[in-house]
Amino acid sequence: MERTSMLNRQPAVAGQLYEAEPDKLRKEVARLIPSVKKKQKGAAHLVIVPHAGYLYSGQVAGATFARAHIPETVILLGPNHQSLGASLAVSSEDWATPLGPVPLARDLAEALVHGSKLFATDNLPHQREHSLEVQLPFLQSLQKNLRIVPIAVSRLLMPQCRQAAAELAKVVKNCAEPVLLVASTNMTHDEPRFEASEKDQLALGHVLSLDPVGLHRTVLTQRISMCGVIPVTIALLTAIELGAEHTELIGYADSGYVTGNTEQVVGYAGVMVR
User: DSSP assignment, residue 10?
Assistant: First the structure.
């Protein structure tokens, strides 16, 4: 993997989904990250967080990140909403947010691409994608030495998810430093609150049972509009390979609590896997 540009990947949704002015963003993130006197025992392998505007899903994301120990190295997997480029697109660029630069964990990114038949270097899917960008200010606020491997994920079949997870787990195991996986997803989209909650609890039941195969099958067969089901499936498979045994639902909400509209909501969930 060669450095294709000296320029960072610049923010695409600052000023839209979160504050663009640095001081305002610091205050916004600080407000959304609750004070936690005692972190979760044992390092998390994975956190699952939503990716809407901070007004809607920021409290769930902030509460979830607050419960985890954030190491210096984080691998992020999120849906490729525009379906551009490679199916498993690994960024080769350093990133930036209004809070400052975020360097690429180049050693891990290179190892992942070079040792894989599925992961590929491709910056195109990341240019306008928001699902990973909105996680960075939270991570920057909790880890000053943050470095990342951003991966945009398109639709894959279960055998491909298994292979991707095996390749990802191998890279994490070979890393001398702790690595946290972050999987980005929103839950059911644009359905009445009762129906959305019912579907989301069905999907989350598989997440909390460490059942990625059941999650993948249920979301597809029940037509649950969980946009990040594939990155979550891969991340869960990877976490299990890394020894994960425990899960915790940190929070669940929907957009109706902000808009007042309960006839068309989007669901947001935060989960820790350790």
Answer: P
Helix 212-221 to helix 229-241 angle (10° resolution) is 170
- Domain spans, the chain: 70-185+203-273
> Whole-model pTM?
0.96
The DSSP secondary-structure symbol of 104 reads B
Q: What's the token pair of residue 119?
A: 């992961």
How, if at all, do strands 179-184 and 73-79 pair?
parallel
Q: 3-state DSSP call for residue 66?
A: helix
| CATH architecture assigned to 70-185+203-273 | 3-Layer(aba) Sandwich (3.40)
d(CA 88, CA 238): 15
Phi, psi angle pair for 237, to nearest 5°: -60, -40
Please answer whether residues 77 and 181 qualify as being in contact, where contact means their C-beta atoms are separated by less than 8 angstroms: yes
Q: Which two tokens stand for residue 154?
A: 């398109």
Three-class DSSP category at 259: helix
Rounded to the nearest 5°, which phi and psi values hold at 75? -105, 125
Tens-place pLDDT, residues 34-73: 986 556 667 899 999 999 999 999 999 999 999 999 999 9
